[in-house]
Amino acid sequence: MTPANPPPDRQPPGAHGGDPVDRQKQAAAAAAAELVEPGTTVGLGTGSTVGHLLPALAARAVPAVYVATSPATETAARQLGLDVRPFTDIAALDLAIDGADQVADDGWLVKGGGGAHTREKIVAVSARQFVVMVSSDKLTDRVRGPVPLEIFTFGAEATLARLAELGDVRRRPAPVTPDGGVLADLWLDDLDPPQLAARLDADPGVVAHGLFPPAMTWLVLIATEGGVRRREVTRRP
Length: 237
Ligand code: 5RP
Prior knowledge:
By secondary structure, the chain is an alpha/beta fold. It has helices at about 20-35, 50-60, 70-80, 115-125, 155-165, 195-200; strands at about 40-45, 65-70, 85, 95-100, 100-105, 110, 125-135, 140, 145-150, 170, 180-185, 205-210, 210, 220-225, 225-230.
């Protein structure tokens, strides 16, 4: 499987034109925008689906405060007039909305095709409710590699060498992240998501990986040619 998407930082909203997948992303994003309520704080993910979400939020003009998971999202949201604040002094979010590279039947996600998974994960776990919006091509029976990784620059080659015991790990030809991390992908055909997530979480050189457990997600909005379907994964308190 190839990395699902080019870096969203290089992918302006609507860049896919009128193709069916892009239309589905737009439909899922429109449904997600309806979930934002006045007076709430909302985390915004990164990617082309979020690129559709932003104008839908701007069109609704609901008074809400937003935090962004990437410079690209932050810039685009501000240009549309959304109230974007730094995510430093906000203790909790009401909602976070993001896309995904893979959504498995058991609720595991793979994220980070655009390299923003570290901030996306921080925002997802800080939100009372995390909503994922996807086109139907993102659905899969089980998650597969590549699993995106952000690695500390300090000791990066040594970390990558350790991770090579798990599978084929490839450094991405991409600039470091806004937090100074090195991006890589772990390619492996067969993976046990909880086991791999625990192994990656235990490595001090790994900043974050793109495996998101089912417990992190409240709702997946899945757009098909027939409309947008809701799949409730779990309800966070
Ligand atoms: C970025 C992500 C994105 O949510 C994921 O890559 C999906 O992107 P798109 O909405 O462009 O299909 O995880 O790090």
